[in-house]
Structure formats: structure tokens, C-alpha cells
Amino acid sequence: MSNDAKVLADVVKDVHKELRQELNKTGDIESVWVNHCRNIARLKKYASSMHKLASEHWEQLRISNPATSRINWTWSFLQYYFFAGGLEIQRRKSNPHTVRPELILKEPKISVLDVGSCYNPFGEYEELDVLPIDLCPALGSVYHCDFLKIPIGEKSILDGQNVLSLATSHFHCIVFSFLLEYFPSSSQRWSCCEKAYMLLVEEGILIIITPDSKAAHSNTKVMRSWREALAAIGLKRIKYEKLQHAHCMAFRKVSVDTELTREDRELLAPKMYIPQDFHNRSDSDSETKNEVKFTEEELAEGFMYLPMLDE
Ligand SMILES: C[S@@+](CC[C@H](N)C(=O)[O-])C[C@H]1O[C@@H](n2cnc3c(N)ncnc32)[C@H](O)[C@@H]1O
């Protein structure tokens, strides 16, 4: 990896690490997040580093080896699902006798909410009607929005480049590309997924892409845990693929019969863990909390490789 790419990648990794350290120190995720959102200098440095890393260095990799690209993967899955019969196949699999209203595409475009968009990487596709949102946009075309805090209402309301609310049951697709591991706590990752469920139309798709340059089987436990947690809220995993640097997953919104209680949620949220959540905690702490155990190797290597960080 070039030195420039390494410096940029370090800025990104350091912010994730600092957030985890701040949470470990205080145990108060609300104040950690409020302070983080106020730290405009840190947010801006992250945004410009991430933008440069992705649009210059990762883009070269995408050109030389398109099969490594999270953007290409997402686009080809969406084409398959919405335009090439994937949705009908899923309907037949789930319940062939149910009569469903037709999923209407706009113009016909797929309406996409790209959360943590940074520089709107999906804006290049004409068939996608993208609303790119970010806590700290790298480009003026991306809307400012803290997805953790944004209210959900009947309509999406935009005010200049700010998002004031997002429409319930509206989007055909929501993208979390390299988003979830930004958050230092599993409860925040869980909230994002619950919100995605509310914002998607029935049969809509949540795409989750999470970085990992290790072999496909290396984080099976983590991926299984996410799959189980999301199935409980009606996000059924219908596609999983390990690319060279990332796990790519598509979850389909299906209706669920039982409503989750607060207790159910408290049990499910920790299932959205990543191995780094357990760094800096003593073994006895983990044991009393009945958490998942990782091998020394898993902890040492971490789950959080960004493409080109380990080369
Ligand atoms: C690792 S970058 C990923 C950028 C882009 N999605 C990609 O795949 O290249 C994570 C992005 O998530 C954004 N982000 C983090 N928390 C967020 C939140 N609560 N609401 C919206 N965006 C958020 C960050 O500002 C950052 O731009």
C-alpha cells in the first residue's frame, strides 16, 4: 500500500478506535456520541481522508479488479433483484400462494437511502434514485443527517442540505456500506438496523457491507450472529458473499408475526457485535456478561481490516 493510502487509512481506523476507547472509559454511549458529533474538526478530517482513500486508492483497485468492489457488488445485486427476476424468485420461495401488491419502482428507478454515504459512490448509476446521507458529508451533494437520531415520519423532509425526517416504508433499498463498524456499541448498530426495517418498503432490501480482508470462514460467528438478530426483526438474509476485502450481504424485508418486546430487544442488540467490542475488557467481565469468546488470533487480528490496510 502506498504511504499516502496508509496515512489516510490510519485516520479512519484511529477514529473508530478512539470511539471504542471513549466508550470503554465512560460506559456512557450517549455522551460519547454527543461529544463525537460536536467534534467538527475530527469529523471533517475523517470525511476528507475517507473520501480520498475510497475515490483515489480503492477506485484504482476497482478498475484493476472489479470483483473486489463493494459498489459493483451492490449494483449487480440490485439489478438482479429488482430488474432480473430475483424478487419473484424470493416471492415463490417464501410463500407462493400469498397475493402481494406489486412493488412499484419510480420511473422505474430503485429508491436508495445510502447511510454513511460520505461521497455518494452510488450516484453514478442512473437507475438508482439515491438519497445520500452522512453525519459529516465529504461532498456538498451529500445530505447532512445523523441516522441514529433522525425522526421517522410520513414524509422525508429536506431543508437545504439537511435531512429533518425520513419517510416510513418508502425506500426500496437501504445501504450500510462500511457503516456499522464505525459505531462503538452493538446497541447503535442494532438501532440502525431497526430503523432500516421501518424505512424499507415490504420486500425492500438492506445491503450491509462490512470490511474484512481475511478468509471467508474467518468471521463466520459474527456473520451468523448478525443473521440471527436481523431475522428476528424481519430482515431475512437472502445473499451473502465474501469479497477479497469485505463481507457483502443482502437482507429482504419480510413481515413478522410477533412484535418484539423490550426484553427481546435487549437480548438481540448484543448480537450485532464485532470482535473489537471485546478489546480492553477482562476475561472475567466477558464471562459474567455471557459474551461470545474469541480466540487470541481473532482478537489480535481484529475484524476491522479496511481494504488495503493489511497489505
Ligand atoms: C467508513 S465510512 C464509509 C463511506 C462509504 N459508505 C463507503 O462505503 O465508502 C463511514 C461513514 O459513515 C458515516 N456515519 C457514521 N455515523 C453516522 C450516522 N450516525 N449517520 C450518518 N452517517 C454516519 C461517517 O461520517 C462516514 O462517512
From TrEMBL:
The keyword Translocase does not apply. It is an enzyme of class 2 (transferase). Keywords: Methyltransferase, S-adenosyl-L-methionine, Transferase. Its EC number is 2.1.1.-. It comes from the Eukaryota. S-adenosyl-L-methionine binds at residues 116, 134. GO terms for molecular function: methyltransferase activity. SUPFAM superfamilies: S-adenosyl-L-methionine-dependent methyltransferases. InterPro entries: Bmt2/SAMTOR, SAM-dependent_MTases_sf. GO terms for biological process: methylation; negative regulation of TORC1 signaling. Pfam families: Bmt2. PANTHER family: S-ADENOSYLMETHIONINE SENSOR UPSTREAM OF MTORC1 (PTHR21008:SF0), S-ADENOSYLMETHIONINE SENSOR UPSTREAM OF MTORC1-RELATED (PTHR21008). S-adenosyl-L-methionine-binding protein that acts as an inhibitor of mTORC1 signaling. Acts as a sensor of S-adenosyl-L-methionine to signal methionine sufficiency to mTORC1. Probably also acts as a S-adenosyl-L-methionine-dependent methyltransferase. Belongs to the BMT2 family. This is S-adenosylmethionine sensor upstream of mTORC1. It comes from Daphnia atkinsoni. The gene is EOG090X0FUY.
